[in-house]
Amino acid sequence: xxxxxxxxxxxxxxxxxxxxxxxxxxxxxxxxxxxxxxxxxxxxxxxxxxxxxxxxxxxxxxxxxxxxxxxxxxxxxxxxxxxxxxxxxxxxxxxxxxxxxxxx
Length: 104
Prior knowledge:
This is Chymotrypsin-like serine proteinase. The protein is an alpha+beta fold.
């Protein structure tokens, strides 16, 4: 495990299936509340990234769709899939706590 970066980084990633995440992580629950990304090229989340966004570039602009949840203990360059908590599954809770509503 390396050191935590002082520089804000970004990377373009592709999503993958829940089944691929579940096959890799086994005992962890992959239940549809996550978005899994393919980090097989060694580009994924690293130590210190927890809570960071997974943003999608849509026709309507950028949207935060995921929050960094977990990745492989082997490190960010291990090639293992990474999981993000799916923001849309928790919008009601977020709106009730913040008072900010989703502008659809």
